[in-house]
Amino acid sequence: MTDTSYFPAIAELVQEHRGAIRAEWEAQLDKGVLGSRRVRKEEQRSQCDDFLGAFAAALRDDSAGDIDSRGWSGMRVVLDDVSSSRAKAGSTPSETATFVFSVKQPIFAVLRAGFADRPAVLAAAFWALSQMLDKLGLYTVEVFQRGRDQIVVRQQQELLELSTPVIQLWDGVLALPLIGTLDSMRAQVVMENVLQKIVDSGATIAIIDITGVPTVDTLVAQHLMKTIAAARLMGADCIISGIRPQIAQTIVHLGVDLQNVTTKATLADAFLVALERTGTMGIARTS
Predict the structure, then answer these.
(1) Where are the alpha helices (DSSP H) in the chain?
(2) Which residue, of 160, 194, 228, is where some domain finishes?
(3) Claim to verify: residue 205 and residue 260 sit in the same structural domain
(4) Does residue 80 belong to any structural domain of this protein?
(5) Are 239 and 274 a contacting pair, CB within 8 Å?
(6) pLDDT-based confidence at 106, cuts 50/70/90?
(7) How many beta carbons lie within 10 A of that of residue 252, not counting itself?
(8) In Å, how far are 107, 211, 222, 261 from 249, measured between CA atoms?
(9) Are 174 and 146 in the same domain?
(10) Stretch (H or E) spanning 241
(11) Would you put residue 177 in left (φ > 0), alpha (ψ -120 to 50) or beta?
């Protein structure tokens, strides 16, 4: 367990020599060895200064050496900001943790001078402070990883949105060209995008083109049927295009019932059917 009896004295020394500690800390970070090159110098200076201020305040308020306690809330806010900004800048978890670990040397130098005449106290203060900074370093890794995971999830969602565009081909006619594997998550996005576009545009025909889908298995077929059923509930009919010979054989082999669904070999053929159903074939030819 961390001995916190030395924390008030350490806090006073950190606050008294805050400028010198920050200058030495920044000098280490500026060498590039500690992985700070992805962070702007002004931002890095602000983070160092905020860290030292929050650290001294937490040491004065701490009573149990628990960084999850209320006394360390300001410190956690600072580390959350450091971890988040460095995750966005492309730093690694170890680089982010090293930001905290690298402050040990300048703080230890101050302690060495402050407790020079009390070697036993100096050793105990070193150990207590080292344990606390280790906890803070590990905390930054945890926060960094959570932030990076959130970024990955958001990017995946954005890619799903970009990979399932719903295009309005004509008045009342939508097209959804699918490219790549259709898994459960993407199928849900497909359904949501199609239904929302039907509501927004008032379309009565939606063409689902699977030319770019490499394989059609039972799961893909089920997703397509669910999307078609949902579109019908919204008052729109679906046409499946891009049925290549291999896919047609697979669908027959799987026993998927597409008797009530219009299918075409190409998107162009499906578009002509859509124009006929919407009664705009003549308008399309004249235009």
Answers:
(1) 7-16, 18-30, 41-61, 73-89, 93-101, 104-114, 119-162, 184-201, 218-233, 245-254, 267-278, 281-286
(2) 160
(3) yes
(4) yes
(5) yes
(6) very high
(7) 10
(8) 72, 15, 16, 16
(9) no
(10) strand 237-241
(11) beta
29: which 2 tokens? Answer: 């970070």
Q: Which amino acid is located at 50 in the chain?
A: D
Domain co-membership, 18 together with 150: yes
Say if CB 59 and CB 14 are below 8 A apart.
yes
- Furthest-apart CA pair in the chain: how many Å? 99
d(CA 164, CA 169): 15
How far, in Å, CA of 88 to CA of 147, rounded?
8
Please report where in the chains the tokens 């669910």 appear, as a residue: 226
Same domain, 12 and 57: yes
- Dihedral sign, CA of 217, 222, 225, 231? negative
pLDDT in tens, 66-89: 888 888 999 999 999 888 888 777
87 is in which domain, residue-wise?
7-160
Percentage of the chain exceeding pLDDT 90: 30
Give dist(CA 51, CA 134) in Å, integer. 14
